[in-house]
Amino acid sequence: MECRIKVWGTREGTISPLIYGHFIEHLGRCIYGGVFDEDAPCADARGFRKDVIEAMKQIKCPILRWPGGNFASAYHWEDGVGPKEKRPALLNYVWGGVETNRFGTDEFIEYCREIGAEPYITVSLGTGTLDEALHWLEYCNLDTPTKYAAMRKAFGHSEPYKVKYWGVGNEVYGHWQVGHCNASEYAEKLRQYAMFMKALDPSIKIIAVGADNPEWDIQVLKHAGRFIDFISIHQYHGSDEYYDTVAAAYYVEERLRLLENLIKGLGFGHVKIAFDEWNVWYRVSAEEEAEKNGVVFLEEPYNLKDALFAAGVFLVLHRMSDIVGMANLAQMVNALGMLKTSKDTLILTPIYHVFDLFVNHTGRVVLGLDVNTEYYAIKAKSFVGGRQHFELSRVPYFDASATYDPGRNLLCLAMVNYYKEKSVDVEVDLSDFGIGEKATCFELGAEDPFVMNDFENPERIKPMEKTVELPGENLVFRMVPHSLCVLEIPLL
Ligand code: AHR
Questions:
Q1: CATH number of 2-10+367-490: 1.10.10.10, 2.40.30.170, 2.60.40.1180, 3.40.50.300?
Q2: Would 115 disulfide with which of 56, 270, 303, 431, CB 3.0-4.6 Å?
Q3: Which of 66, 70, 235 to mutate to test the pocket of ligand 1 (most atoms within 8 A of CB)?
Q4: For a pocket test of ligand 1, which of 95, 170, 334 has the largest count of ligand atoms closer than 8 A to its C-beta?
Q5: How far is Cα 462 from Cα 446, in angstroms, rounded to an integer?
Q6: Whose Cα sits closest to atom 5 in ligand 1?
């Protein structure tokens, strides 16, 4: 198979580093057992798993969302601050099991500082109140001689935490959500929360709940658009079918473009999209786990085809860099996690490797790019138990992004060959540039797209690095079936 790309010397925009963000929730073994595990041999004095910290530092996690997800809707932050022995053990109403509250706001901030991430907190619109949200904001960000700022100081944290990103509610459009409401109820609550929260701290950014539903999103934007900075969208996809899964990245693009058109059409140029939950999720069901065990774990395993979906999402986010300001993989560890832990081991799934390749080997400046490839149409099953379907008439077999890294003067080409069975020869036209003689190539691929890492074989799939000779500004680059390649090309 042949396809062609032409990279232009034009700079088309800047990618927000926040698109490589993550999300942790009090769900199964995400926090307790993943992030925080006081009994694990690899835990530090604070109870944080050192192996997970190292993995997150390697992919320079820019932003971390917490405490949920659905869990946020029934979370009361005061249960999780102060001396640990005085914190109440409570039932986790949302996901089952016991919430010990040993990981709360101070631990979350400490963790973000350790891995170098901006904290992003979601306040409760379920059993929580506006008062409670304002107190939480005061606790985190203010230096006033008042109760909650003083409480933070009394607990040993004299300086404000300066938490910039605040989400008002989570998926409140959903019947499964504590605090479920309709669009106009939400829009008015959001207006009040955003207005009062920004009055306390004008430097914060507010993330509104979007529903991937124009009716909802339009009402929210019209009523509260001038008070918010981001509107969210959540997408989970995947099935056992290879093409259902990889094509879903282009369904994501369609939904993001729909939301972009609403935002721009209504004239809210200052509002960006927060794609603050996304991942492959279809193998494990929360309902079935809750019924069987009373506790939900969602330990979805991930293979190469799932990683190619993630790579496709990043290509889309590169193209949409002017509107998507943030994205958070759901989730970071164990529950829907790109990392999996046992008591003393950590495994990196192929999705983690996609983060590594994009974060560390692509640039933040988007270059002009034309892609010539073949397309297919698909009617796909997607998301938990195939309950959701989507149809697309034009899905590419090959896709790419071209970016520039000014720090290292590199042109970076991220390319995905989605053909399940065929190699492609990519004709690359770089005639707008003067290039060096050798490029570095990072390839994520395997014989079988369904291959995954597990505790017995933790390195079955990982990126391979090699040097590629560059014959000139026009070259042909061969990609094996179902693979991702990132080329770092030095510019003269
Ligand atoms: O990520 C798991 C759950 O999926 C989140 O708690 C919720 O927001 C979404 O429905």
A1: 2.60.40.1180
A2: 56
A3: 70
A4: 170
A5: 9
A6: 69
- Residue whose CA lies nearest to ligand 1 atom number 9: 69
Q: What is the CATH number of domain 15-363?
A: 3.20.20.80
Catalytic residue among 118, 138, 171, 253: 171
First to last CA, the chain: 31
- The conformational region for residue 482 under phi > 0 = left, psi -120 to 50 = alpha, else beta, is left
- pLDDT tens string 192-225: 999 999 999 999 999 999 999 999 999 999 999 9
Within the chain, all domains assigned CATH 3.20.20.80 are found at 15-363
Active site residue 300: no
Every domain of the chain with CATH number 2.60.40.1180 lies at 2-10+367-490
Give ipTM to 2 decimals. 0.99
Query: Which whole-number Å values give the CA distances from 33 to 51, 53, 65, 415, in the listed order?
Result: 12, 13, 18, 35
Three-class secondary structure of residue 40 per DSSP: coil
ω before 235 within 30° of 0 (cis)? no
The answer to whether the Cα torsion of 254, 258, 259, 263 is positive or negative is positive
